[in-house]
């Protein structure tokens, strides 16, 4: 079992990573405050893990809120169902929401906890690789709006993150690969040694070797904890964690959020961000090639859909990093170092968009 601290003063919290945590009463009791608990999950995860988790608590009052599965349900409506469950079960300010599931459940449940009675505690219990390496850490919560992804939300830190690595055994392959895209992202923007380790260990990760997965989760959480501790509300540094996301969100939106998983869209977006970085002379072709190769080795898509450059640019304007009308992009200066800038030649961006989106 490994513990990593997210150091945010009074809002600091531990991330615990290891096998068997869903039934580890000592860890659960120590890290989950409150007598009243509302477990928020979805239909898929409920079948697999809800009973396992709820039977692990002694002397607590536990209610459940089971949401439909899917990104299309990350809406104000489903957040409303969490409020309904909190009210119906007479939960007060000392209640704790437990987000049991992937990033969709975690984002909705965290947002509901941030707003209910102006904020109650919540604990992330991530069950996808993507949630264990990224979305459960850092306090970004929210839901989608028909006008764009994650447009409604709040920065609101969990009280703890408890990542049971055993849950990854039931994760579909495609979801595992989607999570690996975010690990590759961490290597690109922060840690060239992690990137090189991924190049060498991808087969073990895809075979779900426990030691390899545990290392990838732990290192990702360390990186994310470091970045979030320095810039919790994304004033500057934290934006580097959106490497590939501006292009990726345009791909997700252009394809109705139902064609690409989040990590798949990020994979495509990272290739495009690397392409623009290369056009600007920041990195050489070898870095872009290494990125494309490791994504291909993971089994992630490497050919963006032909959604059209103009349409993509329009969608990129909805990105939350847009300031005073300027689309800011995360680019690579070298492997392991990223910058956030709106100072890129417009013709270079146009060339990247046209080459990949048509
Ligand atoms: P997800 O939550 O939709 O989970 C993927 C699928 O796996 C779902 O069908 C889910 O029911 C199923 N599942 C979950 N755990 C399982 C398990 N152990 N075994 C079998 N099936 C399981 O998707 P995700 O990739 O976890 O998260 C994507 C979401 O996270 C997106 O909405 C994205 O915007 C968000 N996100 C948020 C942050 C953040 O910082 N808050 C960061 C990255 C992504
Ligand atoms: N996933 C990007 C962030 O949490 O900042």
List the helices and strands and how they pair.
Layout: E1 2-6, E2 13-18, H1 25-31, E3 36-42, H2 43-54, E4 61-67, H3 76-88, E5 96-101, H4 103-115, E6 121-126, H5 129-135, E7 140-145, E8 148-155, E9 160-164, H6 173-189, H7 192-206, H8 210-230, H9 245-254, H10 262-279, H11 285-298, H12 309-316, E10 329-334, E11 337-341, H13 346-357
Parallel strand pairs: 2-9, 3-4, 3-5, 5-6, 6-9
Antiparallel strand pairs: 1-2, 7-8, 10-11
Nicotinamide-adenine-dinucleotide binds next to helix 2, helix 4, helix 5 and helix 6.
Would you kindly provide a brief summary of this structure?
47% of the residues lie in helices and 19% in strands. The protein is an alpha/beta fold and 358 residues long.
Name given to the CATH homologous superfamily of the largest domain: Dehydroquinate synthase-like - alpha domain
Number of domains: 2
User: What is the C-alpha radius of gyration, as a whole number of Å?
Assistant: 20 Å
Mean pLDDT equals 96
Helix amount, in percent? Answer: 40-55%
Give the amount of beta strand, in percent: 15-25%
Largest sheet: 7 strands, mixed
- How is the CATH topology of the largest domain named? Dehydroquinate synthase-like, alpha domain
H/E element string? EEHEHEHEHEHEEEHHHHHHHEEH
What structural class is derived from the secondary structure elements? alpha/beta
CATH class (first level) name of the largest domain: Mainly Alpha
Tell the overall outline.
globular
Runs with pLDDT <50, length 5+?
none
> Distance between the terminal alpha carbons, to the nearest Å?
48 Å
Q: What small molecules are bound in this structure?
A: nicotinamide-adenine-dinucleotide, glycine
Q: Helical region count?
A: 13
């Amino acid at each position: 079992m490994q513990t990593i601290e997210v150091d945010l003063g009074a809002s600091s919290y531990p991330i615990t990573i290891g096998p068997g945590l869903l039934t580890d009463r000592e860890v659960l009791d120590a890290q989950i405050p409150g007598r009243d608990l509302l477990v928020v999950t979805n239909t898929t995860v409920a079948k697999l893990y809800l009973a396992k988790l709820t039977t692990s608590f002694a002397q607590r009052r536990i209610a459940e809120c089971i949401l439909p599965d899917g990104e299309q349900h990350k809406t104000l409506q489903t957040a409303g169902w969490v409020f309904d469950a909190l009210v119906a079960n007479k939960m007060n300010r000392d209640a704790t929401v437990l987000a049991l599931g992937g990033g969709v459940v975690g984002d909705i449940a965290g947002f509901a906890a941030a707003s209910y009675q102006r904020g109650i505690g919540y604990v992330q219990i991530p069950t996808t690789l993507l949630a264990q390496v990224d979305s459960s850490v850092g306090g970004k919560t929210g839901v989608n709006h028909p006008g764009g992804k994650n447009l409604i939300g709040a920065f609101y830190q969990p009280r703890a993150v408890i990542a049971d690595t055993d849950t990854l055994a039931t994760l579909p392959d495609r979801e595992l690969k989607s999570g690996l895209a975010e690990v590759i992202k961490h290597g690109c923007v922060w840690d060239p040694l992690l990137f090189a380790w991924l190049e060498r260990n991808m087969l073990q990760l895809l075979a779900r070797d426990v030691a390899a997965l545990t290392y990838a989760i732990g290192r990702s959480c360390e990186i994310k904890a470091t970045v979030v501790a320095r810039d919790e509300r994304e004033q500057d540094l934290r934006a580097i964690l959106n490497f590939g996301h501006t292009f990726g969100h345009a791909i997700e939106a252009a394809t109705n959020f139902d064609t690409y998983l989040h990590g798949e869209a990020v994979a495509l977006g990272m290739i495009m961000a690397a392409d623009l970085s290369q056009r600007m002379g920041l990195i050489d072709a070898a870095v872009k090639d290494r990125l494309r190769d490791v994504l291909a080795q993971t089994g992630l898509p490497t050919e963006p859909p032909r959604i059209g450059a103009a349409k993509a640019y329009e969608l990129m304007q909805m990105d939350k990093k847009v300031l005073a009308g300027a689309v800011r992009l995360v680019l690579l200066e070298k492997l392991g170092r990223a910058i956030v800038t709106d100072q890129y030649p417009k013709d270079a961006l146009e060339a990247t968009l046209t080459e990949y989106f048509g």
